[in-house]
Amino acid sequence: MKLFNRISLLLISSLVFAACERDYDAPPLNEPKYDGPAANTTIEELRAMGATVGEDAPYTIGEEKVMKAVITANDESGNIFKKIYLQDETGAIEMEVDQNSVYNYYPVGQTVYIDLKGLSLSMYGDELQLGHPDGYLYRTPWEEFQAHVKKDSWANPENVTPLVIDDISKVNADVNGYKFKLVKFTGVTFQNGGKGTFAPEDDYGEENIEDSHGNVIMIRTSSYANFAANQLPKGKGSVTGILGRFKGGWQLTVRSADDVADFTETPGGDETPEQPEEMVTILEESFGKESGQGAFTIEDVQLPQGSDYVWKASNYNETYYMMASAYVNGANQASESRLVSPVLDLTGKNSVILTFDHTFKTFAADTHLEDLKLEVREEGGDVWTEVGIPTYSTGTDNKFVASGDIKLDTYTGKKIQFAFHYKSSTANALRWQIQKVKVTAVTGGNTGNGGTVIEPTPTGN
Predict the structure, then answer these.
(1) What superfamily in CATH does domain 43-159 come from?
(2) What residue stretch is flagged as signal peptide (predicted)?
(3) Residue range 163-264, CATH number
(4) pLDDT per residue as tens digits for the range 191-231
(5) Do domains 163-264 and 278-443 have the same CATH topology?
(6) At a CB cut-off of 8 Å and minimum separation 6, what does 322 contact?
(7) Backbone angles phi, psi at 280, to 5 degrees
(8) In sequence order, what are the beta bridge partners of 92?
(9) What confidence tens digit (pLDDT) does each residue in 333-360 have?
């Protein structure tokens, strides 16, 4: 009987405890609600504040200014690093933040209010950016970022709608209106579709897309993007991204693999039949003993005192080259002159590469590489645009070095000239020697019909 009573007691106790148990709900998430001062400025007005900002002269905002915007892009895929993009009805701007995985806290589609007082406007690549005056590279420290950028309501993807563009050249008609906005280019093809990837393992990828009018724009992708190794799609589709600017040139930044969509290859459709590709040499000039300056011409802007030339064909120990110098009679002289290529017709060409060998010699403590430039202009034009030279010699000897591959794809479909632009002053006059100039390209494939190439805006002559 005692055993029966004990068992009964245990059963009753279990029922009592079971009756007392209940299911607990997870603590509710509180929807963020902004209750600070109302917005009293826009991105357009913010840009006006920074109208006089220079590369080394940031502007710290001292006024009580609040701006409302929506986050259109962040670092979720790894293709954007330590920044977000903000957009309102008047424009868009890049904001620097010294933090990784920002997307976990500030997703795309999040409406935010930014307290601008104490933040800064700085210039990078000739474009305005919002950040912090005391941050490394003007990046906003994370604590400061959270204090200045307040969320309002849950993030809503419907807050972010890209501008749909079927003609890439339209962006040139309103540079300030388009830059850093979220756009969607439709009816485009990748020039290297089905062949390359978005980016190599250890460098940025630069791949062109082309619309049905033959207009071209470059997509720049970080090797850290989680889609960097994806193959470029074949056929025709749409590409969405942030329409950025750098040093006067357009470049598109894709936010994720989902931004590249709807690519199809329909037999018998409107796709241009693939043509066999062939590598061709457009120009090759050694400046040898017989050819001299070849088909190149010389455009003198200023001749050095005591000399009637800057560029001339020369040689040393049977090594031939074109040489520019304004070191005359043991003294530096001011000068300026260009060695100009013949016209290159890039119609029906892609993967255009310029290479050359060169060396320079300095006669002063400073190298002044800014006095030795490579530039490009359209046929018949008088405005030159600088193109970077990847590799220079040491300046301490006469050893020639290869320039490295210089991509001219942004000029596909045009007729152009390039020039070696030499300048000197009475303080410094380098000697520059050029040889083995070569331009190659790929013909065939789907190279477009010669529309507008979205290229760097000329900065002067």
Answers:
(1) Bacterial OB-fold (2.40.50.200)
(2) 1-18
(3) 2.40.50
(4) 999 999 999 998 899 999 999 888 999 999 999 999 999 99
(5) no
(6) 287, 293, 296, 311, 312, 313, 314, 339, 420, 433, 434, 435
(7) -125, 155
(8) 87
(9) 999 999 999 999 998 888 899 999 999 9
